[in-house]
């Protein structure tokens, strides 16, 4: 179990390859599309929407764990999803100064992330906070009720600072899902997001969809190919996250 846990946190479920990765020709760009119901959620982002319409500078803080930090790639700063999200949003909104700050710290519980809001979130007065959490809590089998309490406390604190927020749930791979019970934590996130009217980006279900449909294979892979897989998955997640943000802002 220790070996599996270290693999999960270090690679964060991004240890697979394309079905044709061993071919001599470069693998084609993956089809990142997912069913619309995995992107379209009810909560809106009216403050961010107004800033985009007025072409005012937008700052987004992405706070989370190893997958936010980008530890699974060779160059975390360049290849992690926050940097790729920044590029995707700038392409969608030319003329708007958009900055996405990466505040990912590996191996932190939800409560530990909440404790650094005062240092890593509030000083930037962001237009949007993207909070990725739950993986470490589930991997460590932390009490689900304590996880839920920490999540509710964090969302309440962000709301008290008038910060619009989007949650990102856990990552998926068939291997880790077979040894770690993610469902209670996923259920807690869905319930709290619904009660608190917070947009929930369904990363777990998106990655499961990609796995089930052969877009990515999250299985055993040679070490030298893992970083490229992580980069490709982060790019797909950034594109879907940009679409989710635009959907919430458009509405």
Characterize this entry briefly.
The protein is α/β, with parallel strands linked by helices and 251 residues long. 51% of the residues lie in helices and 10% in strands.
CATH architecture field: 3-Layer(aba) Sandwich
Instruction: Provide the helix percentage.
Output: 40-55%
Low-confidence runs: 1-24
Q: Tell me how many strands there are.
A: 5
Query: What name does CATH use for the topology?
Result: Rossmann fold
Number of domains: 1
| Integer-rounded radius of gyration | 17 Å
Summed up, the helix count is 13
In whole angstroms, the N-to-C terminal distance is: 45 Å
- Rough outline: globular
CATH superfamily: SGNH hydrolase
Strand content: 5-15%
CATH class: Alpha Beta
Q: Major beta sheet, specifics?
A: 5 strands, parallel
- The largest beta-sheet arranges its strands as 2-1-3-4-5
Give the class from helix and strand content and strand pairing. Answer: alpha/beta
Give the SSE order as H and E letters: HHEHHHEHHEHHEHHEHH
What do the pLDDT scores average to? 86
Structure explained in plain terms:
The protein is α/β, with parallel strands linked by helices and 251 residues long. It has a single domain (2-26, 35-250), classed as Rossmann fold (3-Layer(aba) Sandwich). 51% of the residues lie in helices and 10% in strands. The chain has 13 helices and 5 strands. Strands 2-1-3-4-5 form a 5-stranded parallel β-sheet, sandwiched between helices. It is globular, with a radius of gyration of 17 Å. 47% of the residues are buried. Mean pLDDT is 86; it is low at 1-24.
């Amino acid at each position: 179990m220790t070996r599996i846990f270290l693999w999960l946190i270090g690679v964060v479920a991004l240890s697979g390859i394309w079905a044709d990765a061993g071919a001599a020709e470069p693998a084609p760009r993956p089809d990142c599309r997912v069913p619309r119901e995995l992107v379209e959620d009810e909560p809106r982002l009216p403050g961010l929407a107004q800033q985009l319409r007025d072409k005012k500078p937008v700052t987004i803080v992405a706070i989370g764990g190893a997958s936010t930090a980008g530890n699974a790639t060779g160059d975390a700063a360049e290849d992690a999803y926050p940097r790729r999200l920044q590029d995707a949003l700038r392409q969608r909104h030319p003329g708007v100064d958009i900055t996405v700050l990466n505040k990912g710290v590996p191996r932190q519980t939800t409560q530990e992330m909440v404790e650094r809001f005062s240092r890593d979130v509030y000083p930037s007065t962001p237009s949007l906070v993207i909070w990725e959490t739950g993986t470490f809590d589930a991997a460590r089998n932390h009490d689900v009720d304590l996880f839920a309490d920490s999540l509710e406390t964090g969302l309440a604190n962000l709301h008290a600072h008038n910060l619009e927020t989007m949650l990102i749930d856990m990552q998926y791979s068939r291997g880790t899902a077979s040894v770690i019970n993610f469902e209670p934590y996923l259920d807690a996130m869905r319930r709290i997001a619904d009660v608190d009217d917070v947009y929930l980006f369904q990363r777990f279900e998106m990655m499961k969809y990609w796995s089930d449909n052969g877009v990515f294979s999250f299985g055993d892979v040679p070490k030298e190919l893992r970083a490229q897989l992580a980069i490709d998955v982060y790019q797909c997640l950034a594109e879907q996250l940009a679409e989710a943000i635009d959907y919430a802002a458009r509405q």
